[in-house]
Structures are given as structure tokens and as C-alpha cells.
Amino acid sequence: MKKLLILGCTGSIGTSALNIAREFPTKFKVVGLTAHHSQEKLQELSKEFGGVPVCLTGKESPEALEHLITTCGADIAVNGIAGSPGLMPSVYVLRAGMDLALANKETIVMAGPLVAQLAQKHQCRILPVDSEHSAVFTLVQKFGTDAIKEIVLTASGGPFREKKREDLPFMKPADALKHPTWDMGTKITIDSASLANKGLEVIEACRLFGVTPDKVKVTVHPQSLVHSLIRTKDGVLYAQISPPDMRHPILTALTWPDFVPSSLEEWDIVSGGTLSFYPPRMDDFPMLPLAYKSLSMGAGPIAYNAANEVAVEAFLQEKISFTQIATITEKVLEGDWSQEPVTIDEVFLFDKQARQQAKDVVVACVLENKTEKTCSSCSREAF
User: Fold this and answer.
1) pLDDT tens for each residue of 31-61
2) Are strands 76-79 and 99-102 parallel, antiparallel or unpaired?
3) Rg of the Cα trace of the chain?
4) Residue among 309, 348, 103 at smallest CA distance from 208
5) Are the C-beta atoms of residues 288 and 202 closer than 8 Å to each other?
6) Which residues, in sequence order, are CB contacts of 211 under 8 Å at separation 6+?
7) pTM, entire model
8) 308 CB contacts (<8 Å, ≥6 apart)?
9) pLDDT tens digit sequence for 247-260
10) pLDDT tens for each residue of 123-152
């Protein structure tokens, strides 16, 4: 029986992980839980799973979180924390010598080489939980790294995939949060709308699987059934296909290298409908090409992630337009990010610098927006 620690247990990933634990009570035992703000729900879950230790990260200190991670006795931790706050919990998990089922892509984006070194030092594994990287991981394990010619990540395209370019500046947060396929948290849903989420996944794929950016492609696949593909050196494509349910990749990570029977929905190849694929609209959604650009700089991925997080928060507060998320990120990436961080402390130093630069650009955008309240080609207000 594997002992599970679930970080971010009240979010979408954490909720799915708990459902897996409930379905397989003889395979998994929950031994620790964390949440950010949901204290009442956290206590309810602790009681359900036998009074396991908990940490409310929004109120307790980082030391309290580290203590929980190092003393709970887990074999594997599911990190479902959103955004850059998920990095240090990943570090604590690996330092404790436990396997990491990782849904927090920022861990790899911000500090991929460093966390890989930690995993190697403490002889533990990083098992991707993002549906795309879980699919690639499974396929790579089957065929071997040397057989891979390229990785193809699929993207739903988000709620704006059919919006005209001229309409994008006028999209509100409520519009961006209407994801057509997945039920996710606020930040990741906005990122899906801008394709920043896919940009982060491109960075993550390069670092997780040790491939160069030119070997990672993106295709828009609205049905979200094919979670990713690999092309082997003989030119053949292989896909991983399942309904859009995060319990599939979570179960894969928690049971690897075994495959266990489950009650999860299977996709019916006869009645499942048509699968379609389109090229991403790079010019209309520049957050994706900016991610590729960031990979050419040492600390570029850190700056990309930090700038995007600041910009998304400003967009949610309706201080900036949807398209200005990319404007802000691009402006920050124009700085000098050539230096590669060699410690976690340096990662956070670059992160802090990028956030401050992004905040300065947000202020400039707000001032610009106040003087240009309406679109130059129509009478609609942008804000």
C-alpha cells in the first residue's frame, strides 16, 4: 500500500487524487493533506481519512509545510498547487526522498534542472500528472528516449479558439473562464485561453524529456481526447487517448510502472465521434511563441512564468485587456535573462526581478488604457 501526501487537496487536481484514493482503499493510504485557504474543508477531509496531519499554507509558515512533508511518512506526494507557490513544496518533497506526482508545471518551468538534480540525489522519481506530459511519459517509457523524433502536445485551443483576432482585446475574464472541455482552476483556465498554458507545457516537455524546442510541436485538438503524441524516428505517430478526466493521469502516476483496472470512463472508438487537429494560431496567441523564445535564455522560462502570472492577475482585476497579457510578457522577456540559475535561491531572485518588471509594465498599460478607452476601429469599450 502506497502512502499518499496530497498538496492542494481542495483544488481540481487534489480532489481528483482523493477520488482515486477512495476508489482504491487497499492500494493507497492518505497520510497528509494541505490546502491554501479552505480550512473547514481541509478539516473535513482530514477527519474522513482518519485524522491525518494537515497544513493550511495560507496561514501557516513554510516551515510548518516542510515539517508536514518531512514527517508524514508518505511514499509519494501529489503536487496540485497552482502557480509558482508550488515550487518549494516540490523541493521539500524531493529532499524528503519521496516520489513526486507533479501537476505543478511551474516547478519544472522555473527550476527543472535543479529539481532533476534533487530527484537524482535523493533517488526518487518525478512522475508527470499533466495529461499531456503523462501521455508523453507513458509513450516514452514504452519506446525509449532514443526512438523519439518529436513530441506533439495537444491543446484544446481554449474558449477563444474560434474568436476573430480583432475581437480578442475585448474579451472579459468571465469569457476567458468558460473553458469548453476542462473544469480547472482560474489561473490555468485563463492560461488555456491565451495558450500560455501550452507555452508552459512546451517548456516543461523540453526539460522533462531532455529534448530541444524544435522537437516539441503543438496542435489544437478541440475534443481533448488525444492527450499527446510522439513520432518515432521511422516517422510513425503514436497517441495516448482517453476521456478528459484528470483521474487518468493521476492514476498512471500513482501506480507506475503498473497498470491497474479501474472504473474510469473509457473512450469508445466507434461511438466516440470525430477527432480533429489544427495548427495553433501563433500570431493571434503570442504567448505560445514567446514560450519557445524564452527557452533560448537561461532564466527566460522563469521570466516568462513570472510575467504571465502578474499579467493574468491584472487581467482578472480588469486592469488590462486580454491581449495585453502577451504584451507584458513580451516586454519583460526583452530584458537580459541570459544567466542560468544554479540554486533555488537564484530562481526566486530572477522570479522577483521579473515580477517587478511586469508590474511596472502593467502600470504603463493601465495608464495607456485610461487614455484609449475605446477601440480605434469601433465604439465598443475595451474595459
Assistant:
1) 999 999 999 999 999 999 999 999 999 999 9
2) parallel
3) 21
4) 103
5) yes
6) 148, 150, 151, 205
7) 0.93
8) 191, 194, 196, 200, 287, 325, 329
9) 999 999 999 999 99
10) 999 999 999 999 999 999 999 999 999 999
